[in-house]
Design brief:
Elements (H helix, E strand, L loop, with lengths): L1 H28 L6 E6 L3 E6 L3 E8 L3 H4 L9 E7 L9 H4 L1 E3 L7 E5 L13 E9 L4 E8 L2 E5 L5 E5 L2 E5 L3
Length: about 170
């Protein structure tokens, strides 16, 4: 009976050691931090990024997206979109990227929209929606407006979508 008791104690000690190792590994790897965007720059906004993820997709949508989009990622309204050249899971870590300037494709990325040439300049007084999809952390989205030739982050409601019969539908927000 004593041998069985030692086996149980040994197993408990093993489980405690494993649990402790997992806790140490988690604490050393750091906490996941949500992506945040601070806007700077002029008519070509600079998206100053912070967070712990890697940028998978950055998209800037036209002002019409807010009232006419038929799905959350309605490509018909994308003015500028970039993705990692190695694929969705191979983006650059935000800590290494730092910022992205509208219309300037960072190293390791490809421009998807427009397919060729530069994206259209952003118009003074118009509100544009942007999304930053990231891997390994929650992404970010918001609105940018050009006021007095400066990029300004604005707030406000955008379209909200839900699924019905396997299709996207617009629905009231909140």
């Amino acid at each position: 009976m004593l041998v069985q008791g030692n086996r149980v104690i040994g197993r408990i000690a093993c489980l405690r050691s494993t649990f402790a190792l997992v806790l140490v590994a988690c604490s050393l790897s750091g906490c996941e931090r949500t992506t945040h965007v601070k806007l700077e720059g002029g008519a070509a906004p600079v998206f100053e990024l912070s967070g712990s993820g890697a940028v998978a997709i950055l998209t800037v949508y036209s002002p019409d997206y807010i009232t006419k989009a038929e799905s959350p990622n309605d490509e018909n309204f994308a003015l500028w979109e970039i993705k990692p050249s190695g694929g969705y899971l191979h983006g650059t870590w935000i800590r290494d990227l730092g910022s992205i300037t509208y219309g300037v494709v960072p190293p390791g990325y490809v421009q998807v929209k427009p397919q060729a040439g530069s994206p259209p300049p952003l118009t003074e007084g118009q509100r544009y929606f942007f999304t930053v999809e990231t891997t390994a952390a929650p992404g970010a989205a918001g609105f940018v407006e050009i006021r007095n030739s400066q990029a300004v982050q604005t707030h406000g409601g955008g379209p909200c979508f839900g699924r019905k019969d396997k299709k996207w539908i617009r629905m009231p927000c909140g």
